[in-house]
Write the structure tokens for this entry.
Amino acid sequence: MGETRVDLQHLLEDLRDAYPGALEETILTEVVANSLDSGATCLRLTANPTASTLTIVDDGSGMRRRDLVRYHDLAASTKTRGHGIGFAGVGIKLGLLVCESVVTETRRGKEHVASLWHLAGRHKAPWKWIPPSGLVAEHGTAVQLKLHNALSPLLDEGYLEGALRRQYQPLLEPEFDEILTAHYPKGFRFEVNGRLLERQHVLGAEVSKLAICLARKRKPSAIGYLLRGESPFPDDQRGMAISTFGKVIKRGWDWLGITPADPDRTAGMIEAPALAAALTLNKGDFVRVGTRGALYLGYRKAIQEAVSQQLANWGDVREPGDRAARRAVRPMERDLETVLVELAEEFPLLASLVEHRAGGQKRLPMGQAKSAEDGHAVLAMSVMTDAEVPEEAGIPPEARQESAGAPPPEKAQGELSPQPEASPGVAVVPGGKGRSRPGRYGLTIRFESHEGDPDLGRLVESTVVINDAHPAYRRALASRSEGYHIALAVAFALARLAVPPAEEHEFVTAFLIRWGEALDGTRHRSRRRS
């Protein structure tokens, strides 16, 4: 790619900002992901601070000459959505922002080629063919980053090891071999400056294995563990992490919607390979709408049940006051369902929290997939026993009828399909037995104390967390007006998702109007904003 009118530097900076972590860690993570997608079994990293170079070599399938040509096009990708965990060679492309040059050498069969690439200006990213220097032996791909900054963390051996252990933790823990062997039959190993990174068993004062068994499945579809320590874990190890194909996608407690009594001393990890189909385009999060969203939400619910069960076994349960607070907000959550359905037409970004369609909320189908095309959709629904799936998910009418309680033709009336038996540490998510329960697909409300936080509440996944340590909340309790305070906190939290900052007042006003109308059970068709 030579000169173009597109501002390439700005494009790369926007791509960089789409990732939550540091740029250097994003580059490293994406290079490893592409190596895993190529079928590599070993990744060798060599940092040379003297020459300011980082060389990464894998033994994957390599690229052909025509593939290397497309590799230099910022707008092209050989990736197929739903397959693999890398994203369009983005690690190398982001490397242009911090490198003087990027050398890529690849070998596949008889084709052995190499190129030199650099960012020459805001509108220029030229590359040229160069003779291979022998970084790749029989097959695979090697990249060599010549960094601008001689003090870059990518030149630090300790940083490289720490980032690999954070981002690819399941590959370095034997506990996940049971499920990852199917995808990496020859295993995978990392070498940093010639030193093999040792695999380590998980350590903690209490460790409990978790397995997620989908309905009518005896083999776990996701495995992991929950552990408690005698002292607080480091910040980057706290919470429940979820990974797919060995790559950690999310970490913490917020995404799961569960908070233990002592979250600083509780951590865990779940590996769910099937969730690769629900990854967002940048592979940094999960889709939450449509068929892929149903898959993610189904697994999330199953993981919630497994974690909650183990926390209860440890005696980590909510205090009575928390249960009373949950009962108190349930009527408001039902009102929120109505409000969100009404507002979703006027504020489309709320569609990620509630699916609105003619006929209202539907019961959850629990049928079996009739073909390979709808396999993912029904897989998700088989674990979502009290959530809801949009009609757009593509479920055939036969599956919907079966989910309403009609037995399959080959089953006698009243005969139930066998379910896996539960065992300690294993969460079994049952399939449909008779008529499925109607459920809500909207927001939930949770209370947490955040001293000094000026916000009344914040939106986390599909949960609004109310700050019960806020002075305004204490005043609302004293005046018995906590219902209005909660509604206002929810409105402010949703405003940040629904509209730009300049329109937040308009949104809060519209929200409160519909919230007031929900008291009488009236539904007014949303008026489009001019």
In short: Residues 320-346 form the longest helix (27 residues). Confidence is low (pLDDT under 50) at residues 355-424, 429-441, 522-530. The CA atoms of residues 348 and 498 lie 7 Å apart. The chain is about 30% helix and 20% strand.
